[in-house]
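HUMAN: You are asked to prepare a plain-text protein record giving the amino acid sequence and the backbone structure tokens, both parts labelled.

ASSISTANT:
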Amino acid sequence: MTGDGSFWEHLEELRKRLLIMIAALVLTTAVAFVFSRSIMGVATIPAGGTLLALSPAEAVTASLKLSLVAGAVVSSPVILMQIWMFIAPGLYRNERRAFLAAVASCLLLFIAGAAFAWFVMLRPTLLLFRSFETGVIHGSWSVSGYISFMGMFLLVFGAAFQLPLAVMLLTKLGVVSPQTLGKARKHVVIALLVVSALITPPDPVTQVILALPLYLLFELSLLLAVIARRSPKKP
């Protein structure tokens, strides 16, 4: 097989996989939009109050946002399968195992982070925000603003929970060592506060709320890094 033929075959394979992923996302988003009222009812439970639509199209826009997120979650197995089917033929057996392990760990950590945000952190955070609405300050949250905040809140915690995987990877590659990270705890705390400030909405409450579990994840990462360093290396 010539190089040109191989390139065009890979390009055609990529086009086919992308079309399947887009079709899966569009289909699941459309189905989610049909049930958007029920999904919106569940999503707005933590708000604990009435949400306003500040423009004629805001309720529809918020429903579309929520439907797109729900469609992306439901279609993610199909999307991941298509990505795997595209890249798997070019990997060796050990590379396939390593890739699958990394993807599975990444997904599990992301789900754990999003679940932690939803079941543990979201309601107290919103109640804390409500507590500042006193005196002449009366909170009237828009439905679009709430959906955007909730989505970013879950996304940030899901991404933050990738910290143990990143530390283990850097340890395996020899970039860092558990001893070095342990001695740099003070600097890590400052770095986590800076990272929290960059990836959260511009309020100190959310930044501290994110920084605390990030530090606990850092300590867990140190423990996993020690285990990874002590595990015997395969030839």
In short: Residues 93-131 form the longest helix (39 residues). The mean pLDDT is 84.
